[in-house]
Structure formats: C-alpha cells, structure tokens
Design goal:
This protein is of the alpha+beta class. It has a domain of 137 residues: TATA-Binding Protein (2-Layer Sandwich), CATH 3.30.310. It has 14 helices and 19 strands. Strands 12, 13, 14, 15, 16, 17, 18 and 19 form an eight-stranded antiparallel β-sheet that branches. A hairpin with a 4-residue loop joins strand 14 and strand 15. Helix 5 crosses helix 10 and helix 7 crosses helix 11. The two termini are 31 Å apart. Belongs to the phosphohexose mutase family.
Length: 452
C-alpha cells in the first residue's frame, strides 16, 4: 500500500501487510529485505505491461472488500434510531486525502445525515495546499478551516482524518465558545469506554467478559488498564505501532478471544477486528454515534470524559518531542541515562521525583521482572526507555522510526476518587518539565524544541 500518511508532502512511503491482514513484523521484514537484495536486477519482462491483462494474478478486489467493510461496520451500529433523529451537526475534513467518500458512506451505513465536508480539503491533493503538515494530531493549526466551517453552520463536533484516513482527531465546541481538541489518549478513553459499554449491553451474561481483550501501545495512556481492572476484561500492552497490536489481536482472535478495541496515542484506533490496523473511517462514525447518544442524555464528550476519569481514575498525559539530526548526540543522550548514577546505573531521581522502576527495550532490561529481563520484544536498533515514578507517573523516551525526533510520553495515573484535576495537572507538568531538564538536557545536547 503506497501512502503519504500524515507526513509532509515531500515524504512518500508504503506499508507492507502479511497474509494475516496485519502489517509485517519480524522475521518477515528481514525476509522481504533479503528477497529484494537477491533481485536487484529487473527480470527481462518486468516492464512489459501487456502481460498484466492476461495474468491470473491480477485482481481488483475493491468492490468486494468495500462491500464487506461497510457490512461489517454496520454491526457496530447500536443506536440507529437515535442516529436517524440526531440533531447534532458534524463537520468532517479529510485534509486533502482519500477519506471523504468513505466517511460519507460510513455515516450512511449508520443512518446519519451526511457530515459537512470542509470544501477546500475534501478532495485528494498531494500538495496539501492549506496545511504545513497534514496531520490532525498537530491540533488547531490543521483544523483552522474546520473551525471556521463549524462556527458558520453551528456544528458542535469536528471529525478529522489524516490523508490516508487511518487516523482520527475529534474536536468539540465548549460552552465557552472555545474548541477542545481531544488528545489521542482522551479519545482512546472515550472510544474504549463506549465500545465496552455497547458490548456489555449486548452481552449481559456473567462470565462473558473473561473472553474480552483490549490493547494499547506501551506509550499510550493506561486508562484501558484501569477500566479493565474494574470491569473484568483483559488488557495488554504491545510495542509502539499498530503492526504489533494488529498481529497480537490476530493471535488472540485465533485463540477464540474477543478483541474489542485497540489504540495508540497518535490518534490511531482499531474499533473493529475486521481491519487489523488503525482505521479512521470506522472510528469517525463510531465517535459520531457516541456523541449523538450522549446528546440524548444532555451530555457532551468532554463531560463524559470527566465521568470516565471520576470512575476509573484521572489519567492525564503530556507528550512532546525534541528534534535532533545528529545520531551521535542521540546515542550519547540515552547512554547517559543508562549510566546516570555510575556505570550501568539508571537514575534514581529526576529532579525531585523518585524513579521507582525502569524498563529499557533497547537493552532488554526491566527491573520489575524477577530476572530483570523485559517481556516485550527488544530492539537494539531503536532507543526506548520507560521510567516509573513514585507519584504514579510513567514516562517513556524513545526515538522515532521515521523522523529526526526524540519523543517523550508522560502520564500521571491517579487512583479513583482523586478528582483534583488542577493539582494533578500541575504535578504532571512539574514531572514533564523535570524530564526535559534533567533527562533530555536540551541546551547541552543542542536539541530543538517542538514549535506549537
């Protein structure tokens, strides 16, 4: 699959899927690379396109896959009568990508009125002329035209896909008139709660929940874990990226388990196991149904998010990154963390915050395990260290696989009943500031800060 994804227009790439429908993971990536290296010289008839017409290998599966896809997502429509009568208006942008027609069809499959499309961004355009980065995760800058249209037509909800429509951002107009753009973790909490709530209504029998699983990447919020503890289903973490979640979901399904939902903080959601990858189309229409249902209870998405946090514990996150184009600097930064308090001694403190646990998926070290060996797969070719703190905070630092970024993901997980949001937010910001100052040392390492 060739895709520009959410990257700048200069970038093009492709995704490779295995026969199980999920993106490739080891050892298939190395096997394919070896096959390419063994075939660097084109075969004699490689450019004779007349051979295509008679080849039994040539099939266009679009119609059948399209039909199966929309048949499947209809099984996740639980409130069709509410959808038909919904007074909510939705604005949708595909950010110059391919999502428009599919989201329109998804809304039709759920018996919604069609969402209003941002006209300047409705059709595919590889130049992405209205945005610097066609990534809805960047927030309000990418959504400027969506805000303008929504304000004009009186829409309260904005749904935004990236150009290949595998990601989804959602924004909601607040009573103050301001727009709240939900973070990937916040929308993950909402969708996870909603999908489990709908499942529970359809499966009231005791014991059924023991067969249910939800997944999230290790750098994403732990809110699904908190919900699982109270509700009784299983929660698992995987390495970063849907290739890991998709393959793990397939393994569980083959074992007869029910995988309801998977998400990553980078606004990626798998709301149906028919697609073993993040899918912004099904996520968009399921989010619309959730918002419409809540509206019948006089609730907004923001209010429901607060209700989730009040019941299961506040999970507040702050994610950011630094740019670094020098691989030696990156290596030295992470080596310093591994020898922070002497040879092979990870830090015990980060500013005033006590470090209570370390997992290093580059070296395979995990001090929470009896043998100090990490359970998750490790990779020496990428940097990734997770720190656990005495105040309930968790922070992961890692390098990006596609961009010159060193990212961090910090979250404060509070116990149910601790609803002092402002104090929790201050504590998280103090922790994230300490991580930047003491672990990244941006001035010493000449790192460029993220520009909002």
């Amino acid at each position: 699959m060739v895709t520009a994804s959410h990257n700048p227009k200069q970038d093009n790439g492709y995704k490779v899927y295995w026969e199980n429908g999920a993106q490739i993971i080891p050892p298939h990536d190395k096997g394919i690379a070896l096959a390419i290296e063994d075939n660097l010289e084109p075969w004699p008839h490689a450019w004779d396109d007349s051979l295509i017409d008679d080849s039994p290998l040539l099939k266009d599966p679009f119609s059948s896959i399209n039909k199966d896809y929309f048949s499947d997502i209809q099984t996740h429509c639980y409130h069709r009568d509410i959808n038909k009568k919904s007074k909510l208006k939705f604005v949708h942008t595909s950010v110059h990508g391919v999502g428009h027609e599919f989201v329109q069809s998804a809304f039709q499959a759920f018996s919604f009125s069609p969402p209003l499309a941002v006209p300047q961004q409705k059709d595919p355009d590889p130049e992405f002329p209205t945005v610097k980065y066609p990534n809805p995760e960047e927030g309000k800058g990418v959504l400027k035209l969506s805000f303008e249209l929504a304000d004009k037509v009186g829409a309260r909800i904005i749904l935004a896909n990236d150009p290949d429509a595998d990601r989804l951002a959602v924004a909601e107009k607040q009573e103050s008139g301001d727009w709240k753009v939900f973070s990937g973790n916040e929308l993950g909490a909402l969708l996870g709660w909603w999908i489990f709530t709908c499942w529970k209504e359809q499966n009231p029998e005791r014991g059924a929940v023991k067969n249910v699983y939800m997944l999230a990447s290790t750098v994403s919020s732990k809110i699904l874990r908190a919900i699982a503890v109270q509700e009784g289903f299983h929660f698992e973490e995987t390495l970063t990226g849907f290739k890991w979640m998709g393959n793990r979901a397939k393994e569980l399904i083959d074992q007869g388990k029910s995988v309801l939902f998977a998400f990553e903080e980078a606004i990626g959601y798998m709301c149906s196991p028919l697609v073993l990858d993040k899918d912004g189309v099904s996520a968009a229409v399921i989010a619309a149904e959730m918002a419409s249902y809540l509206a019948t209870k006089n609730l907004t998405l923001s209010q429901q998010l607060d209700a989730i946090f009040n019941k299961y514990g506040y999970h507040i996150s702050r994610n950011s990154y630094f740019l670094c184009y020098d691989q030696t600097t990156i290596q030295n930064l992470f080596d310093n963390l591994r020898n922070y308090d002497g040879d092979s001694k990870y830090p015990k403190l980060c500013g005033k915050f006590e470090v209570t646990g370390v997992r290093d998926l580059t070296t395979g070290y995990d001090d929470s395990q009896p043998d100090n060996k990490a359970i998750l797969p490790t990779s020496k070719s990428s940097q990734m260290i997770t720190f656990t703190f005495g105040n309930g905070g968790v922070a992961t630092m890692r390098t990006s696989g596609t961009e010159p970024k060193i990212k961090y993901y910090a979250e404060l997980c509070a116990a149910p009943g601790n609803s002092d949001y402002n104090q929790l937010k201050k504590e998280l910001n103090d922790l994230a500031d300490a991580i930047e100052e003491h672990f990244f040392q941006p001035e010493k390492n000449k790192l460029q800060r993220k520009v909002d």
